[in-house]
């Protein structure tokens, strides 16, 4: 039985264009954009129909191996939407935008971030790798510039000299990270998306995102692990 995809309208096309130009968008911005696109093109609008609106776009993107995906920010737990290329969910799709040694630096930064305790890597540690690149060594000044570009392009986020993966990067590369770092990369027990900035249950080993920890344990006076029911050993952020 073939289910016909709902019709793409100019409102859908405008929404997609704007999202493409941004790369990633917070859910509140996406809701506002949804309303604006429907108003401009005089298309039926319902405030609670954003997911349906996006799934119509996705059904038309399917043959192009593209998809609008929803993910959440690890720092504040807010939902975001990003346009994802399903064919190359790895670093290879960044290849058209960056030189080989820049990609190698990104891979090394990614290693440091994912293998760290808290999902962050210091700029010092990343910059120290610049002159160890196999493709072509980089001066520290150059490497600083490249990191800045990765932040501008929303692959990395920086806070007080500490780098982590941007929400866009996590949404786009989640599968790649889970496949390539399967010993360390884990999904959050609450929201089931990749969790780098997280807390781990000392008894059963499940991980929970910091925003999910905040939300899940908010009302509990004696926080217990949702999996094994042992006392949760960490401070609730």
UniProtKB/TrEMBL annotation:
GO terms for cellular component: chromosome, telomeric region; nucleus; Smc5-Smc6 complex. The gene is Nsmce1. Gene3D superfamilies: 3.90.1150.220, Winged helix-like DNA-binding domain superfamily/Winged helix DNA-binding domain, Zinc/RING finger domain, C3HC4 (zinc finger). Component of the Smc5-Smc6 complex. Pfam families: SMC_Nse1, zf-RING-like. Its EC number is 2.3.2.27. Belongs to the NSE1 family. The keyword Ion transport does not apply. It is found in: Chromosome, Telomere; Nucleus. It catalyses: S-ubiquitinyl-[E2 ubiquitin-conjugating enzyme]-L-cysteine + [acceptor protein]-L-lysine = [E2 ubiquitin-conjugating enzyme]-L-cysteine + N(6)-ubiquitinyl-[acceptor protein]-L-lysine. One of its GO terms (biological process) is double-strand break repair via homologous recombination. Residues 188-229 form the RING-type domain. RING-type zinc finger-containing E3 ubiquitin ligase that assembles with melanoma antigen protein (MAGE) to catalyze the direct transfer of ubiquitin from E2 ubiquitin-conjugating enzyme to a specific substrate. Involved in maintenance of genome integrity, DNA damage response and DNA repair. Transmembrane segments: none annotated. GO terms for molecular function: ubiquitin protein ligase activity; zinc ion binding. It comes from the Eukaryota. Keywords: Chromosome, DNA damage, DNA recombination, DNA repair, Metal-binding, Nucleus, Telomere, Transferase, Ubl conjugation pathway, Zinc, Zinc-finger. It is an enzyme of class 2 (transferase). This is Non-structural maintenance of chromosomes element 1 homolog.
């Amino acid at each position: 039985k073939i289910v016909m995809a709902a019709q793409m309208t100019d409102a859908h096309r405008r929404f997609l264009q704007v999202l493409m130009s941004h790369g990633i968008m917070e859910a509140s911005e996406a809701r506002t954009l949804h309303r604006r696109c429907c108003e401009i093109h005089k298309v039926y609008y319902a405030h609670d129909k954003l997911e349906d609106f996006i799934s119509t776009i996705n059904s038309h993107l399917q043959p192009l191996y593209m998809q609008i995906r929803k993910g959440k920010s690890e720092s504040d737990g807010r939902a975001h939407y990003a346009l994802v290329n399903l064919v190359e969910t790895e670093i290879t799709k960044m290849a058209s935008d960056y030189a080989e040694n820049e990609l190698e630096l990104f891979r090394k930064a990614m290693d440091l971030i994912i293998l760290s305790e808290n999902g962050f890597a210091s700029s010092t540690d990343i910059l120290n790798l610049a002159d160890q690149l196999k493709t072509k060594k980089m001066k520290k000044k150059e490497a600083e510039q490249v990191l800045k570009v990765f932040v501008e392009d929303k692959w990395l986020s920086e806070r007080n000299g500490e780098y982590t993966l941007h929400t866009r990067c996590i949404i786009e590369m989640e599968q790649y990270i889970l496949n390539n770092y399967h010993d360390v990369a884990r999904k959050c027990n609450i929201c089931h998306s990749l969790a780098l900035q997280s807390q781990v249950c000392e008894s059963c080993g499940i991980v929970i995102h910091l925003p999910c920890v905040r939300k899940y344990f908010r009302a509990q006076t004696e926080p217990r692990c949702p999996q094994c029911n042992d006392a949760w050993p960490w401070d609730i952020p």
